């Protein structure tokens, strides 16, 4: 990763975000880079490269549109349509920003928006802003935990590997959440049933 620097981070994150509904843990590249570069300038570059890679990757997903969405989303498109109807009442730009900075399954919003012909410039502006917030938090989290793990393991390489493994594990857990079931639980019972449904889907019981 040092050979490519921020460019390597950008490429890894971009590739991982191009695949709708099945992203690879591209943020591991960001974690690795931040763990190896503690100076503020490098960490700023890592955040920008991460945000730009994620935003451009999701822009590609946005451009897939509804037709390809049918092939990759299957029954989740029903959830996407319902979610889009709810979100549009709150303000689409705000919705894009919130989804971009959160662990929500954002493709279920972006594909219908692309199919609806939403303004590309407005979409990308909100998307990049959200991903920049997420990337900044990720860099801060990686830098903080790297110091803690180095103190625990006494070895920079082991600490970095442990941090990457932890990030990958958390990514897998988030990807296990079945958001269609979460939305259904929320509609029937509110926030707490939705949270319980999300947790059950993480452990494979939903």
Structure description:
The protein is an all-alpha fold and 206 residues long. Helices cover 80% and strands 0% of the residues. It is built from ten helices and no strands. Helix 3 (40-73) crosses helix 6 (107-115) and helix 9 packs antiparallel against helix 10. The longest helix has 34 residues, at 40-73. The protein is globular, with a radius of gyration of 18 Å. The N and C termini lie far apart (38 Å). The model has no long low-confidence stretch (mean pLDDT 77).
Kindly name the structural category. mainly alpha
- Alpha-carbon distance between the two ends: 38 Å
Mean pLDDT: 77
H/E element sequence: HHHHHHHHHH
User: Rg to the nearest angstrom?
Assistant: 18 Å
Give the overall silhouette.
Answer: globular
- How many helices? The count is 10
Low-confidence stretches: none
Largest sheet entry = none
Number of strands: 0
Helix content: over 70%
Percent in strands: under 5%
TL;DR of this structure?
It is built from ten helices and no strands. The protein is mostly helical and 206 residues long.
